[in-house]
Design a protein that fits this description.
This protein has strands at 2-7, 10-12, 18-26, 33-39, 46-52, 57-59, 67-72, 77-82, 91-98, 107-108, 112-116. The chain has 118 residues and is mainly β. Strands 2, 4, 5, 6, 9, 10 and 11 form a 7-stranded mixed β-sheet that branches. The mean pLDDT is 95.
Length: 118
C-alpha cells in the first residue's frame, strides 16, 4: 500500500502562483511514476502532468509553459509549481502514483482544491 498526502491548494487570483506538494509513504519501492490529475465541476478527471523516477516529464497542452512538475526521490515527494494561473485551472487536484509510465494509477491522494478567482 502507498499513501499519498497532498498539500498546497487554495484560492489565488488570476495570474498568480501556487505550489502543490504530494508526499508518498508506505510501499514506495513500487512507485515509478508520480503526477497530478485534476477534475473541475461537471468535467472528467484529466491528466495535468507526470514525472518518472528518472525525471522524464509529460504535460497536458493546457498547462505547458505554465506548470512545472518536479520530484525529490529522496523525500518521495512530487511538486507541481503552477504559474500564470487562469480561472479554467480551477479544479480539485489529485496526486497519483503508478508503477508504469503508461499504466493507470495505482494509488490516489485525497485531492486538494485550487480555485483561481478574482
Amino acid at each position: 500500500q502507498v499513501q499519498l498526502v497532498e498539500s498546497g491548494g487554495g484560492l489565488v487570483q488570476p495570474g498568480g502562483s501556487l505550489r502543490l506538494s504530494c508526499a508518498a509513504s508506505g510501499s514506495i519501492f513500487s512507485i515509478n511514476v508520480m503526477g497530478w490529475y485534476r477534475q473541475a465541476p461537471g468535467k472528467q478527471r484529466e491528466l495535468v502532468a507526470r514525472i518518472s523516477r528518472s525525471g522524464t516529464t509529460n504535460y497536458a497542452d493546457a498547462v505547458k509553459g505554465r506548470f512545472t512538475i518536479s520530484r525529490e526521490n529522496a523525500k518521495n515527494t512530487v511538486y507541481l509549481q503552477m504559474n500564470s494561473l487562469k480561472p479554467e485551472d480551477t479544479a480539485v487536484y489529485y496526486c497519483y502514483s503508478a508503477s508504469r509510465w503508461l499504466g493507470s494509477a495505482d494509488y490516489w491522494g485525497q485531492g486538494t482544491q485550487v480555485t483561481v478567482s478574482s
